[in-house]
Amino acid sequence: MKKGLFALLLVGVLVLSVVASGCISPGGESPSSTTTSSPSPIETTTSSPSSTTSSPSPTETTTTPPETECGSGEVVIWHAMQPNELEVFQSLAEEYMAMCPDVTITFEQKPDLESALKAAIPTGQGPDLFIWAHDWIGKFADAGMLEPIDEYVTDDILNGFAPMAQEAMQYKGHFYAMPFAAETVALIYNKDMVNEPPKTFDEMKAIMEQYNDPDNEKYGIAYPLNAYFLSAWAQAFGGYYFDDQSEMPGLDQPETVEGFEFFFQNIWPYMAPTADYGTQQSIFLEGRAPMMINGPWSISDVKKAGIDFGVVPLPPITKDGKEYWPRPYGGVKDIYFAAGIKNKEAAWKFVKWFTTSPEVIKELSLQLGYIPVLTPVLNDPDIQNDPVIYGFGQAVQHAYLMPKSPKMGAVWGGVDGAINEILQDPENADIKAILEKYQQQILDNMNG
């Protein structure tokens, strides 16, 4: 997906590691290990715990590495992952449970995860853990809905992560989550239609112009549109939605206005006239656009479509002799510890294994295209040589870490409101006036 922010500086550090650097068994087998054999039940639900169904995995013999710590009992994890992501997570959990037969890992799908957590945690009906990007850490911690894990996070664990990930797991002096990947959006291109990926925005625009044929439902680019996706351009010229240090929105800043205007003048005309995620992705998957802007979570579907593809950062814009890189929001995927956690010890042991085992993180990277944040994996030759990980790793270099302040919650709706109003008449919209209107709306919501 899914911040007291020196993180903008840290993004570059992360990517330098990625660039200078998802299948190995997550069990991390070693010749000296002892062997255990047992069934490993894993449960997946789409509603409440009472509707849990269990599907035991086949009994298998797994070598247990000495460093694996096993708890006991059930650990419940709420999530809103895509099916392909869940499949990999379940497989890894089964590996762990084969090594730790007294533990059951239960995944519960929550399509509206935030609402479900806010309703359940205060009443003691929440999960042990939940999975989301780091940008929830501020509002959930301030609301008392996270469990600190300070007693578990030692310096050696902390220093095993890239700096951006270290920042993403803590808030106001406490640790509440463990990171396992970074993410941002990049340009995914169809190699059958684009011989060489664009190195500049002018080259990208020329490709869009070449393929744009709306009368035949073909377009220059496929691009879901909302506040998250548009952030790349809003922040390209120095603008921003929200500054985490001053805790002030910036929709009315001239640089932000310039970014919005640039998008609607230079990209929107080459898109299908819809903001819908599924529609936009389908256009690329069906070969009706040569390029798509999307994140690593989309790669599985691209592969299933049989597209020969490449991944590169959004190319820089040249203006008045200067180079401006689009700066999409970047995030860190975290596993959070929920307040009222019922099995903290077992949850910690599973999460520690999951987030600090190089074999696990490498599996996530190679299977799902996640950008790793665990240092040994960043330096793994297979990761360094993977074009998908490399491409998104390059993209992270130019990302803008999503804010951690709870006040950011008032910003998302305001930006989406501005986008929706502009979309009513993109050609004639007074973008500056609309952004100023929603800037004031955001301020009113933050103050009242």
Automatic annotation (TrEMBL):
Pfam families: SBP_bac_8. It comes from the Archaea. InterPro entries: Maltose/Cyclodextrin-bd (IPR006060), SBP (IPR006059), SBP_1_CS (IPR006061). Residues 25-69 have a biased composition (Low complexity). Keywords: Signal, Sugar transport, Transport. PANTHER family: MALTOSE-BINDING PERIPLASMIC PROTEIN, MALTOSE_MALTODEXTRIN-BINDING PERIPLASMIC PROTEIN. This is Maltodextrin-binding protein.
